[in-house]
Design goal:
Shape of chain B: globular
InterPro entries (chain A): BCAA_transport, Leu-bd, Peripla_BP_I
Family (chain A): Belongs to the leucine-binding protein family.
Largest sheet of chain B: 2 strands, antiparallel
Shape of chain A: elongated
Structural class of chain B: mainly alpha
Largest sheet of chain A: 7 strands, mixed
Strand order of the largest sheet of chain B: 1-2
Largest interface: A-B, 35 and 37 residues
CATH topology of the largest domain in chain A: Rossmann fold
Helix content of chain B: over 70%
Organism (chain A): Moorella mulderi DSM 14980
Strand content of chain A: 15-25%
Radius of gyration of chain A: 23 Å
Distance between the termini of chain B: 49 Å
Protein name (chain A): Leucine-binding protein domain-containing protein
Keywords (chain A): Signal
Order of helices and strands of chain B: HHHHEEHHHHHHH
Helix content of chain A: 40-55%
Oligomer: heterodimer
Amino acid sequence: MERIKKIALFTVALLLAAAIIAGCGQQKSGAEKQGASGGDTINIGVNYELSGDVATYGTNSKDAILLAFEEINQNGGVLGGKKFNPIVLDNGGKREEAMSAAAKLITENKVVALLGPATSGATMAAATMATKYKVPIISPSATNPDVTVDPQTKKVRDYVFRVCFIDPTQAIVGAEFATKDLGAKKAAIIYSNSDEYSKGLYKVFKEEFVKNGGQVVAEESFNSGDQDFRPALTRIKDAGADLIYVPAYYGDVGKIVNQARELGIKVPMLGADGWDSPKLAEYAGGAANLNNTYFTNHYAASDPNPRLQDFIKAFKAKYNREPDAFAALAYDTSYLLADAIKRAGSADPEAIRNALASTKNFDGITSKITIDENHNPVKDVAIIAMVDGKQTLKKKITH
Amino acid sequence: MAVFLQQIINGLSLGSIYALIALGYTMVYGIIQLINFAHGDILMVGAYIAFFGVVYLKLNIWLAFIISMIGSAILGVLIERVAYKPLRNAGRLAPLITAIGVSLFLENGGLMVLGTEIRSYPAGLITSAQLPLAIFGIKLTATTLQLLILAITIAMMIILQYIVHYTWAGKAMRAVSYDPDAARLMGINVDNTISVTFALGSAFAAVAGILLGLYYNTIHPLMGIMPGLKAFVAAVIGGIGLIPGAMVGGFALGIFETMVSGYWSSKLRDPIVFLLLILILLVKPSGLLGKNNTEKV
């Protein structure tokens, strides 16, 4: 028994050590800068997922926002020299934290607008506070249609805006591209049954593809994180599909592309913005496997638009890494807010809201943006073609 | 017919890997009647040892295989000595719960140390070319990697059969499995024999882990959970405690699973596999190859 006791003690000690180390990892970043609105600064709330599962989304977005405000301030600010003072809070990717961070930013820091969070769930949580205190909130990257429109009452949420297109849009554009540009007639779809994003894209794509005169010859589903797609892909191959639509995130996409190419499936594959990751080629078993694959995305890094290229250069210079779609969208969001404040001629939340709602042809780096009656942007969807592992802009479709 | 044969090829590759993992389960069960739930996680550690060997030490993949086997064998023995040996006379439940604990420790420890990131072995580690196969004039696709997996599995099984039947260590293992007390009276070092069993099983798991990583092109700290559970089902199907049973069970389960997802739906694959486990336990708990009175009291 003495030995068991010793081992038990050892285990407890080990667990304690583990807990302490884990605890250190989750430091709260808290407010980076404090300060009251009024005078010659305008406080802006930046509420992001800076830790947790989707920390990279939040970090890239926040860094792009800080870069944008720094540039705006250096160029003289807005409203005759007023400077932006972004106040950053971490919500850890949790809905309740996102909500309390939003409340804190509004009531304590007196912010006139909220930017973020990156994901739809956290944005919806933060939006309840924005609506309660009548402060506009703009998410650069929440793609769920319910974020701006209440699904039950079908009414627009007055204070909630976004700068990215919504999921159904990319499926519609994807189907159009598949029929018109790739000449696909018989599509197979392989989607994740455990993921709303994937299921939503699957439904809309199928509808649109059939409407465009195509035929869906195989529908296969999987659970996110599955490893073996060969049985389903063998079936797709047998069905004679001339295009495979894969609306999933890059981890699963890489495995699917790799296994499809191994089975000798050479037809084009098409996906959505979940494909956008520098890791994709690695998971797909090499850049060559990705040739003849396409996906819809918010922007293309290879887009020659000089302002986009300037942004990419500035981001790289400041943070020493490549920006992604989250960063590009967040950058647009910051400039859109500054533009709205200029047009409103005041930093009053209500005036900013009205200016945001009437945005027309705002010249962003991802696209020209017009905010429609549902507070969704009308903008370009970029179609990216993977060529030897590099993302290249194939074409832009406005929707 | 072509689709059916293609699915058989897919199933054989998956089944080989299940068989390799199931061997470890079955050997340990055969000798100390413990279901070592940490087995799937040793597989993960094996896959990572090879990954770091290949990426950071620039080792050749075959050398990485060997180092990973040795590393995993040491880990297996360590786990046995630290976690299971003190509980040897504590009945069956205590070691089983400990095994689950060790498994959780390795999984969460792995997540903490290695992070949640999915990694891949560098491309071109093993040149996987497509082989145009033709059986009775039906064209099929297999890759050299799939053949390699099958070949490695069969080679490992032959080696294991040799060890178990023709070496002193193997004889000692069989003796301890049959009756540990009598074996001890005959001068066999029971503790060392058990350690050898864990070492062998863990080395096999390491091979399975690397093959999984190559076959799916991804490794992750939780990669061992599902294959571990599936291999456990395979071991039960074949008859737990029986080495040929693990091989038969592994291949049978791999092909069965592929057929379910190929002809029915990928969504139903896991529920049906575990339903099969329940059915086997209800109808023939000793497994396909087991005799009905193998329980020794």
